[in-house]
Structure formats: C-alpha cells, structure tokens
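Continuing the batch. This is chain 6 of the set; chains 1 through 5 are on the previous pages. Same settings as before, nothing changed between runs. Recording input and output for traceability.
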Amino acid sequence: MQHQTTCNALQQQTEVAPLRSYAVTDRVLLAAQPQPADWQRFVEAGYQTVLNIRSDPERAAVQAVAARAVGLRYIHAPWPAYELEPEHLAEFARIVEDPATGKLVFHCRSATRVGLIWMLYRMVQQGWSREQAEAELRAAGYDDDAIETFDFCASDFFERFDPQQR
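Output for chain 6:
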C-alpha cells in the first residue's frame, strides 16, 4: 500500500510540475512530455500545432484527443531517437515552414530529441553552422550536458550522410 501511495504522490507532483520547455523562436517551443493541463496553456500562449515525435501510439491517441479538444492541430510523427534520416529532417522542415502550422509545440519525452532535430534542421535545412545552432539552443536554456549530447548525435548524423560537415 505504501508503494501505491508514493507512486500516486509522484504522479500528482509530475502533473502539476511546470513543463520543461525551450522557446527557440517566437514560433517554436521545444518541450518535454506535456501534462494534461498543458494543452490549454499552449492555446492561451497562442500555439496552434503540436508535433509529437514519441513512438508510443497509444499515448499519442490520447494526446490527440486532448489537444484537439482545446483546438490544437495535432501531428504524430514517431521518429527514432537514434539514426535519424534526412527524410525526417525534410518532413520536419515541411511542418515547421508550413504557414498552416502557426506557432508550434514540438515535443518528445525529455526535450532532448527535439533539441537535436532542431539543431540539425538549422544546420541542414537552413545552412547554419554548428556553433550558431548550439548558441541558439544554449540561449533557449539547454545546458552543457544537452549540448554535448546534441553534438555527439549530430556528428553521427553527418558521418552517415555528409562527412564534410563533421
């Protein structure tokens, strides 16, 4: 019984904790897993679209109902945590650059994968240097550990697809 009480307390604490998020532009918010109260907060902040890249279809179905109930457009694109492909970045570019998307909340479980994809998007699709992309993520609030992870994963991506960008 004690275990269940502890888990319930943890769940309640998580549900009221502020969402870990990073505003990289005035139109794009990189975020960890939203909680039920966050959907309405997104609308109140002017966001129109949520892009979920987690691979859990059951969770995505529940989220889609909650997001649409408050008027958000919901897109589920279960992209891998590792071994991203150029096609994933191209699909992301289509979504983020589509005027119909409006303000975008882009989320995964921990806000790490979305940070990596944002960095790669800036570099591959928009021609930014790695230093520029990292500086933007730092300015949004990502710490040294996150940047180190992004750097490692970006190097892996470029080794597989564009060795000249390493």
